[in-house]
Amino acid sequence: MRLLITIAAGLALTVAGLAQDQKTQIKRVPAQGSNPGSGVEMFKQYCAPCHGLDGKGAGPAAAALKKAPADLTLLASKNKGKFPGAMVNNAIVGAEIAASHGSRDMPVWGDIFKSLAGGQMIAEMRVKNLTSYVESLQQK
Ligand code: HEC
Fold it and tell me: Of 27, 50, 80, which is best to mutate to test ligand 1, by the most ligand atoms within 8 angstroms of its C-beta?
């Protein structure tokens, strides 16, 4: 039996659930548009597959990744109570990747958002609203 779940614009998840060979495979598909003004809508669509709807890192695609997705609710508490807005912004855009080596599991959303309708300005709005939404998920 083969079950295809399309859970996100950035990703589609193929779950092949055979008794002996339980495997979750991630299939990357082109991102669909979404409301750039809604952090929660974009988070559900682009981030929840890996980070989970609650941001804690247990999304359906998490099992198929080499590296566990970060718990996005503890970013402030791990940073002496201060939400690391610039770091989150950079992590989403993917700005630091060029400088570092290799690849990462997390998609480079800066490029993906620029490929969607609206161009650079709307892409920046998406990142800003996603960052604010991640800030709203912070736990003490
Ligand atoms: C394909 C899975 C995947 C998707 C989709 C994804 N992430 Fe990630 N994310 C990861 C992984 C894995 C890490 C852990 C570090 C790494 O791989 O660089 C991470 C790390 C992060 C970090 C850095 C946290 C830290 O402490 O360094 C932030 C912030 C983040 N993700 C936010 C987001 C947001 C916002 C979205 C949606 C726009 C998103 N992620 C979508 C997999 C994903």
Answer: 50
Taking the model in full, what pTM does it have?
A: 0.86
Question: CA-based angle 96:27:52, to the nearest 5?
Answer: 65
Residue ranges of domains in the chain = 33-136
Q: For 19, list phi and psi in degrees, rounded to 5.
A: -55, -45
Place of tokens 């682009």: 46
Ligand 1 centroid vs 51 CA: distance in angstroms? 7
Distances (CA, A) of 75 to 1, 84, 130: 39, 7, 14
User: In this structure, are residues 64 and 26 in contact, taking their beta carbons and an 8 Å threshold?
Assistant: yes
**Does the beta carbon of 52 sit less than 6 angstroms from any atom of ligand 1?**
no
Identify any residues that bridge with 22 across adjacent strands, giving them in sequence order: 17
pLDDT 10s digits, 40-74: 999 999 999 899 999 999 998 888 888 889 999 99
Ligand 1 neighbourhood includes 70 CB (under 6 angstroms): yes
